[in-house]
Amino acid sequence: MLSAKLDLFSSLHKRETAPFSIFRIYQALDHSVASSIRQSREGELSAVYAFEDGALASFEAAGEKGIKRIYDMPIAYWEAAARLLNEEKERYPEWSVTMPGLTDSQEKLERKTREIELADAVVCPSHFVMDSLPEQIKRTKTCAISHFGCHPDDKWTARKTPENGPLRLLFVGSLTQRKGLADIFEAVRRLNSRQIELVVLGSTVASMEFYRNQGVPFTYKSPRSNEGVLELMSACDIFILPSIVEGRALVQLEALGVGLPLIITPNTGGEDLIADDGSTGFSVPIRSPEAIAEKIDWFLGNRDKIDAMKSASKKRAQMITWPKYQQTLLQVIKTILGEP
Q1: Same domain for 286 and 333?
Q2: Higher confidence at residue 9 or residue 249?
Q3: For residue 36, what are the contacts with CB-CB under 8 A and spacing of at least 6?
Q4: Residue 302: is it exposed, middle or buried by C-beta count within 10 angstroms (0-12/13-18/19+)?
Q5: Of the four, 80, 167, 318, 336, which is 20 to 30 A from 301 by CA?
Q6: Among candidates 244, 236, 230, which has minimal Cα distance to 218?
Q7: What CATH number corresponds to the domain at position 145?
Q8: Range of the domain at 329
Q9: H or E element at residue 185
Q10: Number of domains observed in the structure of the chain
Q11: Single pTM value for the model
Q12: Tens digits of per-residue pLDDT, 43-101?
């Protein structure tokens, strides 16, 4: 009986096609907004702001009434993302099971294409997302970057770095190669050091046996509240996220706000988080376990510098604010509407 109920629950929430999948619910919301747009009085609405996968019907309705359409791209454009993830499938065939984006339907991909074509403006959270847009879109649309901000919480501050014993290296996110987890495992395997404790927090995309079979020791932490994540961050020393495809990963902003120095790739969308002098961590190329291992090893050899980096990271987070994001976003909207 329990098995049957679980199968029913799974079928109702199955990716894309099931009636209660996020994709179908989002489509229903899009159609509801479109209906409201069509029922609006002349001049009542000046612009519609919508997100990827939930904009098509709204934008079509807005176009019928001459209303401006602003499109929020939270992650890299699908063509660029598909190329990168298919390359990862070639690098790590066994990890393809952790990348569900590879199975997006043609219907969903065509919807994404049509949405961005209908937009008058495209708002991106990072240079990585902006660079992923098709050249024709960048030539013919108003495209802007508005960086998500940090919200440092004085309640949580990274611990004092231990003089002895292992450094705690923290990864937070879904356990997928889209976020570079296989590269982390390979880097830790190469170092083979008892002076590193790899802590992995997030939802599994494959069985736990799959991850354990990678042959790398790690401490697994299950998903928890945001408060719980910040608490764990405060008990660690370094945050790592060598993602292949992101938009602007909020978790790296949270880690910086707690005071953790970072090891990230440009594809995390965190180009502004790494100080030029390296005081807040390091940016490494994607697909480079060698570079990741080198940076982890640097931390091991420079324990006396980590506490200063933690302080610098927290200070940098205080400079990257949500009000700045809001100001940039409002300016984009004003530009589209022709307002000063």
Answers
A1: no
A2: 249
A3: none
A4: exposed
A5: 318
A6: 236
A7: 3.40.50.2000
A8: 17-149+323-337
A9: helix 181-191
A10: 2
A11: 0.92
A12: 999 999 999 999 999 999 999 999 999 999 999 999 999 999 999 999 999 999 999 87
